Amino acid sequence: MFPDDKTNNIKSPLEKNDHPELDNSELLDAKGIQKYMSMVGQLQWAVSLGRYDILVHVMTMSKFRLTPRQGHLDRLKRITTTYPNPSNIVTG
To answer: pTM for this structure?
Structure first.
């Protein structure tokens, strides 16, 4: 799904002691922001349909919708790897 990511060893939606509010990676461009917003919306739908195990992670990442960074998008991609069928998530 994400060719540059190593998703085989992912056990949880976000890493332990991760602090996305401290992320100082590059800000996303307009296309990246659109992708970020779309992924947040889809993950929020997944939560409303019963994926309560990712609720805290999705809400944490939705706080950054105003000025998302590349690191925030990478974290969303990590959350989608815990989805039962991640190919159903639109990523670009």
So the answer is: 0.76
Predicted confidence pLDDT, tens digits, the chain (92 residues): 454 555 556 667 777 888 888 889 999 999 999 999 999 999 999 999 998 889 998 999 999 999 999 999 999 998 888 766 555 555 55
Residues 48, 66: Cα–Cα separation, whole Å: 22
> Measuring CA to CA, how many Å separate 46 from each of 43, 54, 80?
5, 9, 10
Cα angle 64-20-49, degrees, rounded to a multiple of 5: 60
**Could you tell me the end-to-end alpha-carbon distance of the chain, in angstroms, rounded to an integer?**
11
Q: Where are the domains of the chain?
A: 26-85
